[in-house]
Automatic annotation (TrEMBL):
Protein name: HEAT repeat
SUPFAM superfamilies, sorted: ARM repeat (SSF48371)
Pfam families: HEAT_PBS
An example Gene Ontology molecular-function term: oxidoreductase activity
């Protein structure tokens, strides 16, 4: 058989094969999958720029064929990918212009299943259809047939959305609307103007007409949301946002708008809004307002997106939205504290810390002994925010464990605890005899924590450290002196100011400069 070489195609298939191997080790949303997934989708899109109509590849046992020629590769990765597709009875692969990262990762996950298991589930193409994937088509032998097949998929998805819209939307008015044609995208603005006019009239007749016309609008938006024309629903979303937040909108009309938004959330509205923000930052306020209107079903959707999301800005937006729903998603977050993925546990800890609920102390304290140090650090931060005796005792128990790799951070967290037990532990840490400075880092952290507490009981110990000039390890001990001088800022009195005046002329320039800076701040001597 004749062969051909295409470096861009080879790189794209190799990237997909690498993603397949990584996905067999890591769960969705793991940081190790972010860069390979982004690289694979970027390479695919570069290929589609050369072939806007789509990319058609026939699958052989040990390679890919295009136009009767076998792709010649310098790497075995494309061949491994072809073999995996072959055992799943895939004879051709078509990549189209609406391919997304989510669809590509879904294909990889499905390929990881055993062929017999996949066959019992209906086959690979059936699973892709169930997940509304239209950017990847299997076992289609020409692009024209594939385009018709994709159009049929979209029509079926739209029909499913229309059926959902017609089922009991407004006490029988939806059934009446189902017998009419949904408005076309070009007619959305006219439909919105008509609905606004009915809202302004606010009569029994206008309410009945509004329910019927609003069902038509919802039907059209659902059809667009499940197709590649999703961007055309933005005017309708903006109008719903206006109606829901306008004081002049009656309760009847506002409730219909809220019901519509909650129904759309089950068809991907949340993901659409987040994708919209990722491409246009100006839509962030709209996204915040609309998602804030959704019911409890939006919480799990936002949480799942946070697990999978790779964009740092979208992750911050998701964290903000979830923190506003912390009460309703708290049971969900507590369940995920036992997840085997460290980053999922860390995300749950970050959100649970927002509530500062003392009842969560035991759940948070259990994560102090997690196998991953990143989770331990987040658990310490969460306990530090609670600022209750129970949280303080949990940190003290952690510090008493034989293996305590995050002891410096735990000591600093005690600085936020207004508890006598925390003060006692910190004073013990800085007053113990340690001529070789084996506990230098922990001692410095304890001094910083005492400075945060600003308890007068620590003044004498901090003054002793600030004025001590050891012969052994003088350069290393300087770190403790500087930390003690800074900690004395909130404990200044006449005696402290006198000592700082003396230290401002110290032979150690760093110590003298630190003392002068503290003296320049407003304090007891002023």
């Amino acid at each position: 058989m004749e062969t051909f070489s295409d470096p861009a195609l080879e790189q794209s298939l190799a990237a997909l094969a690498r993603l397949f191997k990584l996905a067999s080790y890591y769960h969705d949303g793991h940081p190790a999958l972010q860069q390979p997934l982004r690289q694979a989708i970027d390479l695919m899109r570069q290929l589609l720029q050369r072939q806007p109509e789509g990319l058609l590849l026939k699958v052989r046992r040990q390679g890919f064929e295009r136009e009767g020629q076998l792709l010649r590769c310098g790497s075995t990765l494309p061949a491994d990918l072809a073999t995996r597709l072959f055992v799943h009875r895939v004879t051709s692969l078509i990549v189209l212009d609406d391919l997304t990262e989510r669809q590509l990762l879904l294909l990889v996950r499905l390929l990881l299943m055993e062929p017999a298991q996949m066959t019992a589930a209906g086959g690979l193409q059936h699973q892709l259809e169930q997940h509304r994937v239209t950017g990847l088509l299997l076992n289609q032998f020409d692009l024209t047939t594939a385009a018709r097949y994709r159009q049929q998929l979209r029509e079926r998805q739209q029909a499913q959305g229309e059926t959902a819209a017609d089922s009991g939307f407004a006490d029988g008015s939806a059934n009446q609307a189902g017998n009419q044609a949904a408005p076309l995208p070009a007619d959305l603005s006219r439909q919105l103007r008509l609905l606004q006019k009915l809202i302004d009239e606010d009569s029994p007749t206008s309410r009945q007409n509004f329910a019927r016309q609003h069902a038509l609008l919802l039907q059209a938006v659902q059809s667009l949301l499940t197709s590649h024309q999703r961007d055309q629903i933005l005017p309708a979303l903006q109008q719903w946002d206006f109606w829901c937040h306008n004081d002049q909108t009656g309760p009847f009309f506002r409730q219909h708008c809220l019901d519509a938004l909650n129904r759309l959330s089950q068809l991907g509205l949340v993901n659409f809004l987040l994708d919209l923000v990722s491409h246009d930052k100006r839509q962030r306020p709209l996204t915040l307002r609309l998602i804030g209107l959704l019911g409890e079903q939006a919480g799990p959707l936002l949480w799942q997106r946070l697990i999978e999301e790779q964009d740092p800005q979208i992750r911050r937006l998701l964290s903000q939205l979830l923190s506003q729903r912390i009460t309703e998603i708290q049971p969900l977050l507590l369940r995920h504290l036992h997840d085997e993925r460290w980053f999922v546990v860390r995300n749950a800890l970050v959100l649970l810390a927002e509530s500062r609920d003392v009842r969560l102390t035991d759940d948070l304290a259990a994560q102090l002994y997690h196998s991953d140090e990143r989770v331990v650090r987040e658990a310490i931060r969460a306990l530090a925010r609670i600022r209750q005796p129970a949280a303080c005792q949990a940190l003290l128990r952690y510090l008493d464990t034989p293996a305590c790799p995050q002891a410096p951070m735990a000591l600093r967290a005690l600085g936020s605890q207004n508890d006598p037990a925390a003060l006692k532990r910190l004073l013990w840490q800085i007053n113990q005899r340690d001529p070789l400075l084996r506990e230098l880092v922990c001692c410095r952290s304890a001094i910083e924590a005492l400075g945060e507490q600003a308890d007068p009981a620590a003044r004498a110990s901090l003054q002793r450290i600030a004025g001590h000039r050891p012969w052994l390890h003088r350069n290393r001990y300087r770190q403790l002196r500087l930390a003690a001088i800074e900690a004395l800022t909130g404990l200044r009195d006449a005696a402290v100011d006198q000592q700082l005046q003396q230290l401002s002329h110290d032979a150690d320039r760093a110590v003298a400069e630190a003392a002068r800076q503290v003296l320049q701040k407003p304090g007891a001597g002023r």
